[in-house]
Amino acid sequence: MRTQYIKAIKIIAATQFLILLSYFYSKSFYANIQVAFLSSFIIMLGSFYAHRKMVNSKIKTESYQSERDALDMIDDPHELYDEEYINEADAQDLDLKQIVKEEKKKIKTFNLKSLKEGGSASFSLFRLGGYLFLVLGFIALKNNDILQISVYLPSLLVGIVVGYIFSKEIFL
């Protein structure tokens, strides 16, 4: 566990050293890289942290066992091709009202519990803080006339990649 933290810190230190070298090229170049890198890095950390928290809560409640696998959800989202048949009787003998009631029970309703489960990963304060930093940093660079989009956008990618590697070392 300790080696994971050391490896993750080394990744951040190396990246920050490379970003610091850009300061000697130009202050505006450095500011663009640093703001973009930090904002996307914080967003990635927040996303991984929120996802880890959500998975751990599902494991504690054991609600993950009843779900279908992801590939089956993509291929057949409405369970049209399931092997189970509702009733093997003739069409005249079927009780359509009962079948409709059973199918309505299968439909997930939108309630406070489902909002809490799905929203916990989406509305993580750490992740929202990263988005706030992204917006405010962009505005600050623009207002000071030092925004360089050709530098800013690739730096977002660098932050995403480093954030992914860092989060993988720490959270997985």
Describe the structure.
The chain is mostly helical and 172 residues long. It has one domain (2-171). Helix content is 73%, strand content 0%. The chain has seven helices and no strands. It has helices at 2-21, 27-61, 70-75, 96-106, 112-122, 125-143, 149-171. Helix 1 runs antiparallel to helix 7, helix 2 (27-61) packs antiparallel against helix 5 (112-122) and helix 2 (27-61) runs antiparallel to helix 6. The longest helix is centred in the N-terminal third of the chain and has 35 residues, at 27-61. The protein is elongated, with a radius of gyration of 24 Å. The mean pLDDT is 82.
Task: Offer a concise description of the structure.
The chain has helices spanning about 1-20, 25-60, 70-75, 95-105, 110-120, 125-145, 150-170. The protein is mainly alpha-helical and about 170 residues long.
Helix/strand-derived category reads: mainly alpha
Order of helices and strands: HHHHHHH
Number of strands: 0
Sheet-strand content, in percent, reads under 5%
Poorly predicted runs are none
Computed over alpha carbons, the radius of gyration is: 24 Å
pLDDT averaged residue by residue: 82
How many domain regions? 1
**Number of helix segments?**
7
The profile of the biggest β sheet is: none
- The residue fraction in helices comes out at over 70%
3D shape? elongated
Q: Give the end-to-end Cα distance, rounded to a whole number of Å.
A: 11 Å
